[in-house]
Queue: 3 jobs
Job 1
Amino acid sequence: MSATDGDNFTMQDMTYKRLWEAMTDEEREQASGDVWRARDPLTVKIRDQLMRALAEHHRFREKFIRNRPPEKKVELFLRASKADGMDDFLDDALRAWLITRHETLITTFLDATGLSRKGCFVADEEVAPKQKALQKGIRQVRKAFEERHVAFYLGFMLAEGPSVFWGELPDAISNEALDLDALLVSAGDDTKTETAMGSESKAVPLPETSERFTTLDQLLIKAVVASALEQEGAFPQDAVENLLEEVVDMSGDRQRSFFHRGFYHALFNIEPMSDFPGANVERRNWYFCGLLFGWLRHEKQSECLDLLKKHARQTDSLCRRDPNPCGAMLLPSMYPVLLRHEEFGLLKDWLESQLPVVRAEPMARLLGEMYQDASSFIRRGRPSEAMVLLQACLKCLGTQKTFQLQRQGQFHALLIRRIAQAHQLQGNFGAASKLLVEEIPQEEFDRIPGAFADLGLIEGGFRSLGATLPENREESIENRLESLRKGESRFRKAVEAHGDYAINAHFCLGLIHLLAGQEEAPEAFSHFSRALTGMLKQEDAYKEASVMEWARFGLGIALLETAEPSNLQSAKERIYQALEAGITFPGTLWARALAAAALFDDHELCSRVARELIDKRGDEAYPILQQAGIHRHSGLREPFLEWLDQKKWKSLELFHLFQELVGSDNSAEGIALDGDLLDRMEGLAIRDTAVRNSFLTFLRDGNFWEPAWSRMEAEECLVRLYEVGGHFQQAADLQRVVFFQLRDLGEDHHLEEARELANHIKAYHLSPDPSEELLACLPKAEKPEIQTSVEDLLKQGHQVSILYVGGNETQERYVDSLQHDFEEQFPGLEVTFYFPGWSSRWNLHLEKVKPIIHRVDGVVLNNLVRTQFGRHVRRECDGRHPWTPCTGRGRDSIRRSILRAATCHLGRLHDN
């Protein structure tokens, strides 16, 4: 059923059984559990019918089914789902699976089509949607979800049969070129042959279906089972026991009758007999066989293993010696038990002695199961265990004379390939390559796309597909790319020969293009997309080595780096899946993903990834943000700064990091943070000569500091830095401009401030001294420097409180002298001195001076203070607590500024 072959869809093209068969084993198991857990009314309603159907199918009482634990119900449904009579319930399992695991997909589709809904169901009053609305819904879910899951949902609606409500859905699917059939095709590990082999391995033979038993044996087994389960019309236990003993006594030559005695003892929990009259090796084998089958039926695996270990001689006879019917009949059922408990010694011997004589049908199932289990061991990095199973399969094929496995030649080639992979996993690259090239006929080799990829991996020195995945180190990425290039021709040959079936080759090529850089994003997208489509059809085969998660991650990055807005939603889904995968992907690749995401107008992805990386990877995340360049984004700069504060950085490195952050956010919060950044840079510049030179260049060459700082603040900072560095001429040149600005303003306080500035320049001791020229430019004061009447009030002891802020230990040395002077001349003047120095923790100093500001009559602020601290001090001042600048650094300048602030306060009082 293809949307691209020119044929119209019909409702009959899709069935629930088709959908069920297209699911992976894991998905079918999920659905078999969801049908018992889903809360929607429709699923709840059919559960009673389902339990009755299961009871009838398995020939159990309904009460027995109802009382089974959830995991047993799942198992019973899975086994029954293969039977034709259970088709009626597949839709319920599929619906429960879709509602439970793909609710967002369903609701997104219904909302996009404009249909009102109740949860995942269309509201009763809704009318049938038009084709255009359905196409809109299809486009929306294709952007946001895996196309394969979209195919399941749409296929489910088609499988409901002819419907007026969804009547235009087939045409909508066709017009959107959505190939449901291709998306639902279930391919194998690399070929359909491998899937076919694995599909035969799921059904475990029961004793009553064995060809070794006669009709009488089958009737006896059914009678014992019916009695044990208390089925209606079944014999009571005593009658069953008498029946079995009669059969045993009827003919001493009929050895298999002792099977039924063991089977009966196991099902009724009767103590096993270690010996009995007439016992010999063969009869004991049959008795043990019955016991084991009975315990297996009740899943008493521990009892089975204990029996085999406790009776070593009998086990040796049953499993290890010459082929015998009991050992061969038990092997298919005991195999998963021995494998699960990792009894590889016993399993190896049992397979070697009994596998060749297992009957044809169970042998085909067992060989397929062994092959799949060996494949799983290889994926999990356990080549020795895989080799036990693969060698046994290969030996069986070589010694079997009468058994002809369907596609035996292909299966033989697949076994050789897996054995080669086991050698490859152990690092025996020569042996692995030789097996692939010499032991597999060219005709068969050409049918296995994975074999091409295996040779490519071997040429690159990789022990497995999972070994290609880069570690979280820059050199790892470079090394992986170099090694992958060695096998690139093999990967391309696989793709040319097998197209989408060359899953591993597509993945390796996608990785090559991803690691090569952003320029090859389109090629990476193409290969990862095709690889992931194949992987999703067999999740179990790829999820163990994290390869599928890497395919999603690589595809997400490639989608972002194509810079196509239409790809953003799909990229988001892949990247979010990568975040939830619990895998530490390399920081360099995360940086690329973030950098590409930052180019889109929608910053939701960028922000979420950054936050989750910080939450999950802590300190390791910040260099990733910096490498991506998104540490400058709003909301990320502050945590980035907090991280910087915790680290020991060289001053110049820290300065450049601060410089990167300035000006990247024009919001009010961003501008405020810029002011803090400039202040930090100033603090570094004061302490470090190299930083000072860089910061001077930064302040002079452009207005990068605006609007966080005003031009005046930037120039004041320049003056401070010139002074700290001993560049007094440059400081004087800057202050000369300020001097004339103050002079031209003309107010008395401006002229006084200009005079202070000229005196401050005089303290530089320049030659020639410009201060005399500047002072000469000022008009002579018509009034005394301090008004006599106000000064008299101050001398008379009027109370005035002043806070002086600014300076360092140099200015602090003047405090005792000044305080003594004030006490003698102005007894009412109370001065509080606060010297913050050049500390970067201006906010802590601000918290200390704020309460003082609000209780004094005036504040003197020396321009020695750092810009941010000075700015915030000025903001705290108001008409009741005004501030007065202090331009100078010496004792006299500080004294004059304090007296000016005090007399200004008294002058205001006098005027009032």
Job 2
Amino acid sequence: MQVAGGRIGPMRTTARLRALVALALPLVAAACEDEPPPQSSYFDENISPVLNAGCVQQTTGCHLVDSFGTAAGNLAMSTFDELARRRDVLTPYGPYPVGLLLMKAGDPANLGVETLEGPAMITTDIRHNAGITVALGSSAFALLKRWMQDGAARTGAVTLDERPAVGGCRNGVGTNPRFDPSAPPDDPASYARFVEQVQPILSARCSAANCHGSTIADFYVTCGDDEAELRWNYFVSVAHLESPASTSELLRRPLAGPAGGAFHEGSDVFETTNDPDYQTLLSFAEDYVSRNAGSGFGEVEPGFAFFVNRVQPVLVRRGCMFLNCHSPSMFHDLRLRGGAGGSFSSIAMERNYEMSLAMLALESPDPNDSRLVAKNLYPAALGVPGAKGLLHRGGALLEEFGTGGGVLRSATVADCEGVDADAGDLNTTPGYCIIARWHAIEREAAIARGELTSEPVEGILWVSRPPDADTLQEFDTFRGGASLMLASATLGADGALSVSGGNSLNGGCGLGDGADVRNPAVSWDGSRIAFAARESASAPLRVYVANADGSGCAPHDTINVGDASSNGILVHNFDPAFAPDGRIVFASTRGNADGATRTPAGMLPNANLYVFEPEGNRVRQLTFLLNQELAPSFMADGRVIFTTEKRAPGFYQLAGRRQNLDGGDYHPLFGQRQSIGFNQLTEVVELPNRNLAFVASDRGAVSGAGAIGITNRSIGPDQSNRDPADRFYYSSFDMPAPGAFMGGSGAFRSPAPLPGGRVLVSCASGASSLSGAPISFDVCELDPTTGAVRTIAGDGGASDVEAVAIYGRPNRGVFVSRQDEANAHTRVVPGEQDAIVHVQDFPLLETLLFANTREGRPLDPAVGGVGVLESMPPQPGTDSFDDERAFVTSDDFGEVYVRRRRWGDYAPLAADGSVRMRIPGGVPFVLEVTNADGDVLPFTDGTFEGPRVQREEMQFYPGERANQSMRRTLFNGLCGGCHGSVTGRETDVAVNVDILTSASRSLSSDDLEDLLSAGPGDPFGP
């Protein structure tokens, strides 16, 4: 039976035998029910009264669940089951002697934090809105502490953390700048003792695949099958030793808590210190420490030393390292290693330094532009004068200067005058000043290395062209009379940009006054520029490169090589963007293997993204989609972000996407259909504080215009229909320049980052509509905290767009696909053409394919399989919808071309909802949702109509080995912070440390549905 071109049949009488057998396994959550809780328990009789008195009733119901399923801090305490969802607050984690519950509600604690100069003694300053509700010396504190140390069980009985080891060890050494597999260890006697005594213990008790046999573990242990692996195991073991040895991570992490151990993401390896293996390990460690003094780093850079000695203790003191805050289990950009009771391994110090450094905006003279600082200052939304902070679930932890004249104010560098941030007491020196000083040290070092330009900004580039009505997708339309303009610029102390002069670079590039010029870009170090241009409608756009002053301008030899047209379509190369390492990502219409194609959305030339790689002097395709991938730019960590067009029957969107430069993890960035109030997101860029800025508009907006939107991507998806009475819902989205899009005046496009906290934009301040006549823009500066817009350059009769500032940015390398990405994990195997995709829980993933709001994930029990439909472009020679009417349908957005073919039959799900598939790499496809017999399910919730087929094309890179989704039992801990919990209740969003040890294990782990070998079926239409 056929419905709208999608298969509802053929009907199958039986599912596959393997799926039937799996249904009988006791691992299926739906088939098992927990024993009902007892009528009364140790918790009810002893713990609950303390919590009710100190944390629920006394604080006017803060930790009671409201009608929206929310509570203060996402923590409800009325029942054991509510509290058990947040075991992270009960666990003595990392440097903290007791769990977060007691650290916030109790008195400050005195801690020794390991530094390069020895232990630094600090007193915690962990803020709690209700103050101290469980005093340190009280019987209530003692009762709660003992209960938590014993395992926080309902019965109060002592419980050990025991998790089964799964999978064998792994071969292949890890990587660390201090490790050379060809060099013998410096202490041969200690190494020999390690090989003889310690390696057998690690092999037997630590090296399972779901434990330290995982490469994402800082303490990654190989099988030890050759000399290089043994040397690695020795290196990583002694890297986790400090003096005294008994308190170092290597000894405390595997030891059970009741025996004096520290939190361990795996199970309790040693129940007591009397374990013979523990005694062997301790003896080895004490011998090594006695023979090898010092940190193991050798000579270190001043910035690293300052971080370890001053900044890391501040992060501990402020409570940043709790399990549900900035621990490795959180899978966000700042996953700090908590060490063990204040002892930090050298690897933990390195990782914490690298991740914290990535949160510093060294390109800006103002440390408040850094995410590490801004997330801990007052947000501008509070109305605090001068506030540049960002919303932070942990609060404004660096606001330490009180009020000025009774008025709340935000911290600035001026507050640190006279403060000894280098050597002052860590307990009295403002943490803000210590981090600001670190910013200055690292900025000075980056300038000395030549990464940053001598001045914060040295100039700006922009395109001056006659006004036109073109959208971002209409790059094929020739727009002559454009000039690439260069002007000098300086940045004031207040972050305001001053621009002087302005000269056309056309002549030096061999371009006449009638040229079409588009989208300039600046290299990471500020020394080079790139842009696209052509001189006639019959010529394609080509990428040009030049020095930052315009000299040495010429077309790029490798990017522009090849024919000027393909399949009757001009081969445009345009929208260049420099990667931190000098590679250039650009858009091109050169097409896939069969050459240039047109888009199903509007029969325009289709553009995908490509990468020019100087090493090998080659161009590599990055995206393989049918509608346009445009306007790439880079995040500070070297990931590509861009605008993508999504079009299918009943669906249209321009959205933001993110991808790793090696091709892995093509991933949504922002733009949840109409649930955020608009359906076009274009020209997305990352700001120095790591927020994203873009143009927001609706379909039909003229001249690519709209409002300037900014999103705090660490908060999660927005939805415009969220109940305003829900006081614990945090909006991630702000529109500082709404203009005509929201009924006011002003039209905007082309946001670009500036050091200093402001944003370059193109603006038409008097525009009252985003439709009708072409809009003429000026170059402007937007203050995102106040919404103030100021014109700084432009020619009154022209449209001045696509401005970018010339300045240096710190080079932090290029992000490489890895196992610990937020989207489970992925890697790319060079030279392979297929893709192997392991979906952990397809019924859960299916809820994300069609909606992305924090309202729960209704899991459909009828979902039992998945089909893969390759999207195929209009055939060569097709210039309009009339040429292939059999594949064209219409909806509210107009006409759309739909031609697909199915790879294989379908892939049945295992009983836990997982499936592992081999599919073509480097092709656009959508997923269809089937039952266990392979029959396509229809939509039933009103989201769309017809067969349940994905509306947004996706891809996997050739050679990609990806995990998708997350098992529903782990979803809340990894994905819930952004996507909401499975139930929709905010109190269910909580970290689950099993993510680190067993996230990628499912019933499909050792099985494979080979849809690629099954081959494609015949093309079919809508």
Job 3
Amino acid sequence: MKRNKVMSFIRLGILVSFAVVYAVLAHYTKPRIIRYDLYKRIDTSKYGSEYNIARMFENCLVMNVDTSNVYYNGENLSYSDIENLLVFEDGRFFCNSAFINQLLDKDYSGDRVDLEELGYEVLNYNNRMCIVDMGEKDISLFDNLYTAEALYLRLSGKEQEDIENAFVDLPYLISNGRNNAVFYSEPSLNLGIQTEIYWHQINRDDSRPEFVVGEGEYDDNSTLVRVFNKMQTCTQQFLAYNSYVKGGVQVKALKSKEDVLIATAPFKSWPLSARRIRIFNTSGSLCMEIIPNLTAPYVIETGYFTGNDNEQLLITSMYPNNSVKIAIIDIDSAKYVKHITLQDSSLPKGERIRLEKTQNSKELLVFFKESRLVYILNLDNQKLTKLDLNLPEGVNGVYPGKNPGEYIVTADEEIFSSVYLVKDNTNEKINVGWRENRFYSTFAQDNPDGYVDRGIFAHIRTDLSSQIMGRLAELNSVEDALNNASFSEWRRSISSNQIEQYHTTYTMWEPCFTHRWNSITQTSNMSKIIDDKTGLPKYMALGKDNLTTNYHELNSAFLNGSYADGLLPMSKLRLYPLRTFLQDLSVEFRTNPERLVAVSPVHEHEINVAGSIGDYNYYMVLGFRSYLLSLYGSVEKINERFGTNFASIDEIDPPRDENRGKWDKYGGSDYFSYWSLYNRFIVNKRILEAYREALLAGFPPESISAHQIPEGDAVAGFLGEANTRLSPVDVVMSCGTAFGGTRYGTWYEQKNNWLINAYNAGHKNITIGEYSSLARGDIAAYNQLKYLFNHGVRMTHVLVPYPSDSSDYVIVKDKEMLAVYKLQRENNPRPGYTGGTLDVKHIFQDGKSYSVVRIGTGDDQNGLLKSVYDDGSWEGSVYFVPFHSHVDVSKVRMKGSTRSSFKSEDIKNLHHGDQIELTFKGKYTGKGKGKVRIYATYDGEVL
């Protein structure tokens, strides 16, 4: 009996122990979910003209000459029954006194009142609009020129087309209105913000998808996530995990009731902080953390897995062992909703797994890479069905096709990029990288089926061929035309011959504007317009002596226009004709994308005034003043920093090398460096404006190139004054579009040449708008051309820079033609972005369907995302490289405490494209609302 009692106790103990273990295991499979606030995404649509007007002209009375419309304290009013509401005479504004008495409760007598008598600041906008500032806004008609023009158009009752195309002053701080804000120190250099806001302003109907992309699976990569808008330009980027988490990051987008969310998971399982899933919104705010009780690293997928209306997150281990365990989580409720365990002895153990959702929301495609086994998992009955597919060698991914029973297979390749359509145990190989393997030259022979083919270079000065030019032929009509023309009068339409050219040739299109004006009657008239404020030429670039200079090139002389901010007619002349031509060209592009080699709206943008560094146009001087004040806040601080002695803002002047002090010396002071940097900044703004117009027209980023002269490099020694050129290429290399430039001479043996810097930055779709090796021997000309071919160049427009009747011209042209002929006879594929495929996603939107595939998957590739039709040809909607090169992340040390404040160490050597990201989690335990204040300083001054 004792023995039996003991045995019974032991048995009970075993049963109890087993029950405890089972309960622990059951709990263990349940992930831990930490939920934070679900912040809504930033609404950039509100930052267009209307928003800027309301912000800038709050507490203002605004009236136009000869119109009855009034803007007062945020309201649009109309007084059509009042005559001579506002009149401008002898440099002053006069208003109907009865109107003023009625609106402002005054008692002025007489017919009209001088608005200066009101006691408020009165601002004059081009003698056309009067702004009575009744608050303390300190309105700047220079810095907020576009907003003032937008309000003028509205009060004037202009056509809707004019209003929609009005320029926008970009906000320096944008917020979602609640907790999350994004600060942009210079939004004019941010294509994401520019395209996002202008897209809403112009109100284009665009069905292209948005993207979220994470750094790829390589040991040195961080966990940087980038969010791209419909124009495929980056609007947000953030580190999903701490900077010491390496190896890249997976991302998946999913819809919630609050917002579009981004699920992230590192590819590696070390350190401990990598063993969790993080959910962000598209502004980069952390919304949720999930700690799965699964073996890291994880594979994630999103979909409607349980059949309800909420999109869910599915998680499994990347390398499952004895069983495949899957957890499904509802993001909106932050609850674990389902757990699946697959106990199948035939499944591979410890092998890499990939999951893809199918068109059936209750099914998953499961792929084991090493064993090349493919299954369909039914999430309802948890049944696995093995697929007998004819998979090619080097397969790295299997994806559901567009139709039932079809599968798309991606594979590793060295030079080509192919996918396989697998159906009924057959597979069809489809080349999706033919376009990227091709090379074009204006010296090549027509060869449409070969890898080296003839390309046409189409240079079109949209500014000088716009409709407005007809009104500039008479000097006395120039100012009226520039200031009062409607948007339609600025148009530059595409011609029928150009439409035919697009569809019958492979063309690199260069619709553009530049600072160089051909010396024709219209531009000569513009050069004679004198600014009332200064008595100096209004629209021309000026030297340090305030004189105009011509630009000389190849026995031609050009007038030198100004790139200054604050000159509204110049902004319209640059961008309105470009905008309309690009929109026309885009119509042809959308019907036949393969015919486009590239579109290059950037043609040698620079500031180049002979004998001076920079442009001394009055509006450049105003911009330089604003630039310095934005950094240092006051004249006193500017004087203290640079050793200047300006008594007021109006005295701030660029260096002119006139012995006014050490600060005035050319090349010998920080003040001179800041003047040079400001000029480079203006050029960069012009470059990004041109890129913005191409993106808004519908051209994806990697189809958009440049024709930019590298400073002091491309033309030094035989063309122009290279030492005066301010022609930056850094923003061209880093802004997310393709790269391109002008380059003459034989230079391929130089270790740090112009091309290798771009190639090492991940550019492999480079166009050269003007090129000649200037070689006098066959070998040198061919070797350099082959070097271009192997280092990312896609098109060369060969231009021999000598008089056509000279012996130099004949020799150099002959050698270049021989080099191209030899390259064409070899007929090898160009090693561009191609080399393997991965990640196929099908897009079904607004009646259109296509697939997006990542091409270029090797260690030295960047992963070009490209939209393709079923036959592998380019569809045209998607074409961009999320990360042109490796992103280096540096951690900034912080000092201080939560009781006082934190301060970072000084951050030095910042460049265009660099970002400072502040990430923190805070908890407030007091009463009322907690606040966090963040200050950014430059040289010790609060920005």
